[in-house]
Amino acid sequence: MSDSSGVFMYVVVSSYRAPGKIYDGYRNPDQAPNLADFLASSSLESDKVPDYIRVLKKMAFSTRGDYFMTRIRELAAASGIEGLDLFAAGESLDKRTETIKLNDSEQCFEYKNIHRYGLIYGKNQLNTTITSIDRLIDWCLAHSEETSTITDYEDADEIIQIINGAYCTLNPNKDAPSDEGQGPGFLFCVLKTIGDLLRYAKWWDLMVVYNNESIIYDT
């Protein structure tokens, strides 16, 4: 049987140092480093980051049952707002799957790590993504009934208070209203934090690295 047990996400603002060159900003898309292998094989933990990556800010969070990505995907579809595929873990992202088997005396466990990852760099890309997030939040405020339905919340009036009260945190599982990474309070705190990380990256000409790691168990 298969059980999608959880999704872990990392949104990282960083600069990239290549041999002989320093990429602290991406004014030319051709300058973007190819980080696909690095992104697919690590969760951007401090002890795994190569020397040529300088992590400046990092948000890590987990969400049960794909809640965050699924609700972002549904809100984007309902609103018609594009540019959010990265955070909805859409099929347009680069993806790599690794299968790991564990044996004990009684059973054989198999699980798959599915990594989806992408980069946002350069003022044009950053501006586009920031605008998409801002437009989505505005749409949710203007369509509270539909937003409450999509986010599994009963009170449309309270959903407006939740959106307006969302705040930034780099550790939303600890600091934001959350039921194992679910609920509108969690979703909009994460969304607001992502927007502010993108603004920070835009101001300092940095890149944003996104890594989504889904763990699926087979027994």
Features:
7 helices; alpha+beta; 30% strand
Indicate the topology.
Layout: E1 2-18, E2 21-23, H1 36-41, E3 53-63, H2 67-79, E4 94-103, E5 108-120, H3 123-142, H4 144-150, H5 156-164, H6 172-175, H7 184-203, E6 207-218
Antiparallel strand pairs: 1-2, 1-3, 1-6, 4-5, 5-6
Helix pairs in contact: 3-7, 4-5
What is the terminal separation in angstroms? 6 Å
Q: Give me the number of helical elements.
A: 7
- Mean pLDDT equals 76
Please state the CA-atom Rg, rounded to the nearest Å: 18 Å
Number of domains: 1
SSE-based structural type: alpha+beta
Task: Explain what this protein looks like in three dimensions.
This protein is 36% helix and 30% strand. It has helices at 36-41, 67-79, 123-142, 144-150, 156-164, 172-175, 184-203, and strands at 2-18, 21-23, 53-63, 94-103, 108-120, 207-218. Residues 1-5 and 18-32 have low confidence and may be disordered. It is globular. The longest helix has 20 residues, at 123-142. Strands 1, 2, 3, 4, 5 and 6 form a six-stranded antiparallel beta sheet that branches.
